[in-house]
Design goal:
5-stranded antiparallel β-sheet; Uridine Diphospho-n-acetylenolpyruvylglucosamine Reductase, domain 1; disordered N terminus
Amino acid sequence: MPRKNPAHEHFEKRLPQKLFTQNYPGLILKNEIQGIELVGEDDEHFYVKSGAGENWHEFVVYTLKQGWAGLENLSLIPGNVGASPMQNIGAYGVEVKDRFHSLDAYEIANGKIKTFDAAACAFGYRESVFKRGAKDKFIILNVTFKLFKKPQLNTSYGAITDELKALGVTDPGIEDVSRAVINIRNSKLPNPAELGNAGSFFKNPVIPQAEFEKIKSAHPDIPNYPAGEGHVKLAAGWLIEQAGHKGKRTGNCGMHAKQALVLVNYGGATGEEVYALSTAVKKDVFEKFGVELEREVNIV
């Protein structure tokens, strides 16, 4: 099991999965189940199990150092391993569902341990069954990932290729891709040790093609990505920026100056303030584009 690396200590300030807007009349437990284990392999894959309480980025770094490929594009995402399938976290063309094998979860109602495969998790864009039908019914104990023996690098998304060139890397390996992703994220996102933030607060909206065409006619430069037959994914950060909220501060919180998708706390912001700002952002984006933004966090 890897030890904590002082270079990564700032990731211990994990982003919340819930936004508390009022006092919570209950007990909050923090999952700190540790341990990383190679539990199997076949001709093409390593099967790696991690305790749900392991720090996500430290887990990714550990797998790369062992030569277990597949998570390099998901470097530097704050949070714990157990939250990764719940949210189906993703970045730079890779989502957890692409590397997921199974998980074990404690069923609160009866105390039994249930194993979920990918189908049972019902993964979607930044969601899973644990945010829908199984919400608040299970505690994820561990997650097993299916990682590659032979790397299948994905460097076409975002600025990874350009960053590798800037690093002077012509024949990248998995740790090179991870370093490029870390550099890109550090250039755009606030260090949570220096500026409190709620991460990417909104999902990138997916809309019907016909609706997109109407928006594009008025905004020809709108970033867009294929999202399945008849649908288009928009960049929430771009929408928020066009609505005037990039770098705008409202009281003790605001949208980050370098990445409009990230909601930051300049110090002392309450849950009510954060929620009010997110509501204002949703309203302004809808008025400008007719697009309804969806919060990623759960509101309590």
